[in-house]
Amino acid sequence: MKRHTWIITGVAVLAAVIIAIVIISQFTGPDDVAKKPDDQNNQEEQQKDSNEEKDKKTQFEAEHQSFQHMDYPGKVSPKFSAEQLTSPPSANWITNGGNISNGRYSQLDQINASNVADLKAEWVTSMGSGFKFKYSGESTPIVYDGVMFNITGANDVQAINAKTGEIIWEFQPELADGLDTVCCGWTSRGVAIGEGKVFVGLLDSRLVALDQKTGEVVWETEVDEWEKGHTIASAPLYYDGKVYTGIAGGEYGIRGYVAAYDAEMGRQIWRTYTIPGPGEEGHETWPQDNNSWLTGGAPVWQTPAIDPELGQIYFSTGNTSPDLDGSNREGDNLFANSVVALDADTGERNWHFQEVHHDIWDLDAANPVVLFDVEMDGEMKKGIAQAGKTGWVYILDRTSGEPLIGIDEKEVPQLDKQKTSPTQPFPKGDNFVPQEVTEEDVKNDLPEEFDGKYGKLFTPFWDEPMTVKPSPQGGGNWPPSAYNPNTEYFYVLGNDNYFSYAHYADDEENTYEQGKEYLGSVWQPVENSPMRSTVTAIDIKTNKIVWQKNWDTIAYSGVLTTKGNLVFVGHNDGRIIAYDAKTGDHLWEFKTDAGANAPPITYEIDGKQYISIFSAGNSLAGTKHGDKIYTFSLEGQYNSAEDIPKEEINTSPLAEKREEHEEHEEQDSTETQDEGNASLDQGRTIYENNCLSCHGDQGAGGHNGPSIKNSDITKDREKLIEQIKNGSGGMPPFGGTLSEDEINVLSDYIMEKLANKE
User: Fold this and answer.
1) Peptide bond preceding 458: is omega within 30 degrees of 0, i.e. cis?
2) Would you name the residues annotated as active-site residues?
3) Can you give the pTM of this predicted structure?
């Protein structure tokens, strides 16, 4: 398979004064900055009126906006105790993972394996946000005292009556103008609550605290500079008066870290980098003759877990940067691709376990870690599990980081040019997806014209394309896993598809430029090859598969498990599915109107158990987009989405204004360009909204899509337009979402600005 044929993520007083000045300048409160003085508001209103026709301003063009639609009906969250945060969720779902162990297990059992077939939709709420293809709905809702909190891919936050679905308030952030360093689709995986606040990480790398009753901004702090590639995609975590968040953006050559902030006013307490600097443990695993560690990646994509008894916070780290080129960063490259334990109070590193040494395959540890306690060999063990993109679950002792089930270092294929590691960790037990492309696979799955090299996990590559498994999609990707203490099974979603890698020394992707994608090589899915996935139950004591379901598409949602002997997952085609937790038997399903690409949750109000899922589609999964939360109960009325009367669907009062605002933004963006560039600028906007997450900001490939820079299809306008309209090879069709004019200007932009010209 040749490159040109490839187809198209006092001192004391002085100190106190200085701190006060910094706090005042850095953080905003609801009564000073968030709400402007009346005279300033009047002046701005007069100015707005005088320029209304010229500027076409809307209420969304101010800074962060909060809109309250009804009185807040419940209690606000307290300063949660360690006991509250570690108890298995029942009535409430108060953290992203259900509790701070991230197990996504609920002790509710009113809905169980014997009656789950009777589940029907109780209420549906349309969020009115995140429709564009660039957005992905990956959020896990939070529920406390009858109120649900959710965030869309556009970073809009809503408080919802969890019993009826009515929207209580909405928060509309003003994201940074020109934000273009989001590597893998515009998304957010959730919010956090505590001390009467809702904590939100924004894509432009800001952390915001909202008043839980009103949605008004309490404080805001800049975590880092988005222009350099720093973003926040994960849900924050509240614990012990602190808010923890990780930084994503490894594809932009950032240096990842986790930081803790004071929950009361947003002051940073500590920050710990995932890549050690000079003099720190692990720095010797990076070259000493260059500064590759400064751009070495190791981002944090997911919400951490905490063990209060041990006083440790746990998370896993992303891949090294550049993702696919190891030639300039010889060594194991700690602490990328690792499970890491820090002191929760100080950020001091306690232990680590690296899953992939010197990664060149983008096999980052993107799945959230899960804490569990289990009896093994007559002794209770404190465990931690992480599902890797490699297709293995890594099961460790969370007190020390040592394997609870054996993990052996084994020799792997070598390539001097890539400075590959001589060995890699191989966990004992079963892999939950295939880890090799076989001759039979090539014969049965790949197109007849395929003539490239192929191999297995840890096979290196250079200037000839190499097809291996698992792919950069995993194995285990971001969709959270779950652990059920009753079955003692770990439930994981895994992807199985064909990707090819190659390295070209003359490619611009090999050159670091701040704020630009830094992949260091080329990757892409094999055209016309199948995309499959697995839903797997693994015995936590043996790391062996108990049962497994096979899907004919990638798995991109997450898992919920309950005391009712149930496992719930979402499917790309819109279904939420329930399996028997012990046997894997298919027990129930309901098809929503968009890709069900977020983890389900469960909660209880007035003695009644509910199941909810945010069904809004996903840009990387290429699924149908939507904006709805579906909620089910045994007393629900609706057997299908088609049965739900339109007038019964709760809707955002701001939906129409949001649509108008987005139209004005796109129009204003085009009008700021010179007339001769207006068409190409419009094409760029359409590309960013629909194509960037898969094909990268320069067309060199993203997390799911191929490079289009050297594709033959970019040299034939008719074929390019046909591909955009109809899709193929895992690419969704855009004929139903983009107009003829939009497809034409998009194709012009791709051919003029992204395609390499011979």
Assistant:
1) no
2) 362
3) 0.86
